[in-house]
Amino acid sequence: MYKQLLRPLFFKFDPENIHYFTFSLIKNTSRIPGVPALFRKMYALEDKRLERELFGLKFKNPVGLAAGFDKNAVLYNELANFGFGFIEIGTVTPKGQAGNPKKRLFRLKDDEGIINRMGFNNDGLEAAIQQLKKNKGKLVIGGNIGKNTQTKPEDYTKDYLECFNALHPYVDYFVLNVSCPNVGSHAKLNDKDYLEELIAAVQKANNTFDSQKAILLKIAPDLNNNQLDEIVDLVKDTNLDGVIASNTSTDRRGLKASEEQLEAIGNGGLSGQPIKDKSTRVIKYLSEKSNKSFPIIGVGGIHSAKDALEKIEAGADLVQIYTGFIYEGPSLIKKINKAILKTT
User: Fold this and answer.
1) d(Cα 284, Cα 307) in Å, to the nearest integer?
2) Which partner for 329 in 2, 44, 166, 279 could form a disulfide, CB atoms 3.0-4.6 Å apart?
3) What Pfam families does the annotation carry (predicted)?
4) Active-site positions?
């Protein structure tokens, strides 16, 4: 029903406007008695064989929703009814910020992709906490954290620590988002020396709590083998808990979209089918190079059960969807979990 009826209708409207419209639609319909149970019956798949234990956490199934969809943690309880095993909220920054000027979200329909330059738009740390206090405990929640756009380079770590310390009681694991191409001073966030400093500071803060939370690094799909080798060394040297591979791409090669269309869109991070193989290559390289010594969450271009299985075969322990969720609808989650069951 989604692909035949709802998607053609939704795709007639501005992507960002329809995003907020669907949020309201899901929120309001979920208030109707019986609708959440109906969603669960239609889309959720409960099976002990799907459970995964990672980072000391039990995931109901290995299919999650990537960060960027529920930035402000306003819909995770309702989205849980669609069968996700975990949901990552954020990216959250200390202060609320509007992000980049609109228009900043674009569909590449022929490529089944999206280009965005949202710029970490979110309501800020305190707003996210107020929403997370409403957690009904349906599934694992990850907290994706970043810095404010206006933060000076010498205060980047302070921003991450502020988010980390405040969110610690409310999320199950953390992701340091240092690979988004839509924020300023992207270069410093990918500098190995700075990453070592940042990770050490966050780990030190983690140790002040009675129970520690897993800390993961989200990396770009455009890294070359030498840079991926540095990531493997970084994880080993810092005892980082894992990696999310991958974020959006700045590469525009091989797209069906015309040069004129891409020029009109301008800069931004590319997600969806066009980065599927690139993301899988990164996962496979990290897994093999590290001898599977750390967990990997695979994300990027998962639009089918086959795409998800490719990520898992490449070395991903869990997978996340985002653009595939928009193009394929909520039935994708159940399809992936059914395919995983067939391999067990």
Assistant:
1) 14
2) 2
3) DHO_dh (PF01180)
4) 180
Backbone angles phi, psi at 66, to 5 degrees: -70, 160
Hey, which residues does 252 pair with through a beta bridge?
Answer: none
Q: What's residue 13's pLDDT?
A: 97
Beta 52-54 vs 57-59: how paired, if at all? antiparallel
CA–CA gap between residue 100 and residue 95 (Å, rounded): 15
d(CA 296, CA 284): 10
φ/ψ of 41, rounded to 5, equals: -65, -40
DSSP E strand boundaries for 63-135? 63-65, 86-92, 95-97, 105-108, 113-116, 122-124
Instruction: Specify binding-site residues for substrate.
Output: 71, 116-120, 177, 182, 247-248
- Identify the CA nearest to 68 among candidates 300, 243, 314: 300
Q: What pLDDT digit, counting tens, does each position of 156-173 carry?
A: 999 999 999 999 999 999
Rounded to whole angstroms, the Cα distance separating 174 from 156 reads 17
Both structure tokens of 325: 């969720």
Q: For the beta carbon of residue 281, count every other beta carbon within 10 angstroms.
A: 16
Q: Which parts are annotated binding residues?
A: 67-71, 91, 116-120, 144, 177, 182, 218, 246-248, 272, 301, 322-323
Mean pLDDT of the chain: 96
- What residue numbers does the annotated binding site for FMN cover? 67-71, 91, 144, 177, 218, 246, 272, 301, 322-323
Q: Which residue range is the domain that position 16 belongs to?
A: 2-343
Q: Strand 105-108's sheet: what is its strand order?
A: 105-108, 113-116, 269-272
143-to-24, 60, 216, 219, 344 alpha-carbon distances in Å: 22, 18, 10, 16, 30
201-236 pLDDT per residue, tens? 999 999 999 999 999 999 999 999 999 999 999 999
Query: Count of domains in the chain?
Result: 1
